[in-house]
Amino acid sequence: MHESLSRRRGHRAQFWFLFTPGAFWLGFFFLLPLLIVLVYSFFTRGPYGNVIYRWTADNYARLLNPIYFQIFWQSLWMAVTTTVISLLVGYPLAYYIARQRQPWRNVLLLLVIIPFWTNFLVRTYAIMVLFRTEGVVNAVLQGLGVIQEPLQIMYTPFAVTFGLVYGYLPFMVLPLYASIEKFDFSLIEAAQDLGANGWRSFLRVMLPLTLPGIVAGCILVFIPAIGAFVTPDLLGGAKTMMIGNLTQQQFLKARNWPFGSAVSISLMVIVSIAAWIYFRYGEEEML
Amino acid sequence: MAQSVDLSGRELRTSTALPAVEVREVTKVFPGPHGETVVAVEDVTLTIQEGEFFSLLGPSGCGKTTTLRMIAGFELPTRGEIWIHGRPMGSTPPYRRPVNTVFQNYALFPHMTIYENVAFGLEMEGVPKDEIRRRVLEVLELVRLPGMESRRPRQLSGGQQQRVALARALVKQPEVLLLDEPLGALDLKLRKAMQLELKHIQHRVGITFIYVTHDQEEALTMSDRIAVMDRGQVLQVGAPAEIYEAPVNRFVADFIGESNLLEGQIARLEGERALIYVDGVELAAHRHAQEVQLHQAVTFALRPEKISLLATTAEVAPGHVSVTGVVEERVYIGTDTRYMVRIGDQAQLVVRMQNLTHQDADHFQPGDRVQLSWDPAVARVLVE
Asked: Is the pTM of this model over 0.95?
């Protein structure tokens, strides 16, 4: 009796020791601010940017305005495009890396991660150097005589998508690599032996078995892409506004915290749906 | 197998005169990890007849699996050509070859049910759904796995997974079935049972089997013919009894079963009979039409069960020869007793005597002087 009691007490001590610091951190610095944002989204902006504590659903109703709907739609579209391009570029890359011998494989993986070591802003400015009217791309194309007048690349959806793909590609490659590296390639031989050509053995065997990596990579790219604001701000300018820019603008420039909160909460709902899809597929794979 | 008239242009499987598989002067060279080249298979020529159970036997790294993979189409020969039923395979990819493989690790698709695994190959051929259903259920019956259709591979035991792998290949009705050490992962008892079952299945379906193994006993038990391989080369091809009774060289004699192999020189030649001088004694063997010179260095080879132990006073059977020796060691192993007998300063012979009666086991004791007798016709002279 005594023994089991003390053991249980030990378990309890362990629980508090392991659980409390993280739980406190998340509770205080994540859940509480989130709750505040949720509550604010139902209040009204005062004349001087203050918050008037009066319940209303106006902020959400305002989101249905075509201007904002357009921004949401554009963000969603760009995030999806970014995710699809990252997948199409990332899968062959992850496949190639996973098929290399060591230590070459680790060197390639390191090269994928290296961009993280430099500041994201600096890297985005580097893209600007490439895309400017007098930038590297235009200079080369003009030098080769392909174009006469410089192309307008900066401040277009293309520039933003390019920047997003560039920034988030490693998040796609790493989970894909983990999945493909675990994949048993003798299954491809088995499929070919049974009459499946390269494409069909990929579709029927490799694709379903690396699906967890695909889903994880897509979620990891989609979520930051849809909320991005630095990349669209620098590469998209005022023409290509995304949800992230709208939120930032409402909080800092328009000083409309309640509306900014409503935008944030709406974004969270979209992301939650994406996460829900992820866990649903994730659980299926657990079977 | 039923022969059907195929109007789709695929050549007919009619002529029984055509060998199922021919491997003609095939060499396979792989690039090594440090830029060098590795010769995995060197100038191998094999002819495998229709309906045969043919084994490729040898130690790991002998080139048997590479040979099988070249027949399947996973590797292409560096030189030489592989023919299947009279058609040169060239660089035909695996999915267009009329062969199927049972893989060593089974390579079952983990995300598919047993039914889907077995149906996969037929689906790729575009066989109608109801015919797929009929053939899958039929083949699962054949490998004695009915009622398992909706399970996943990981829910099955090793032996059951092995049967699924077999069913998945057989359902395609290949012209040749390739098996790459399919029983290697099973425990001894299950392996023995599966050996017999594989043989039964082969009889029933009548397909040519090419079987890769490093287990000489397995090869002897199952095969119609065996090719013994070492270091990328085929050393001997023959029926199990031929390989066992008449090995062509020291490697084959040593690899297949147990053998006494003593090095010596030709002391005398009397027609077929050669007397080999080994460590102070002369041992008689037949040269089996091999050309040998006086004083040539050769190996004397004799299977332990072909020697009889006799008391020094006993009469040697007519036509047999004998030498004397001293029993050094005796090991009782149930069906037989194994004796180690010294016949010279260094030379020893292993003798296996069947325990036919109770007394047989302790007939000779270590330290006893004995006669060892054998028929010189079953002893062999091996020339390297």
From this structure: no
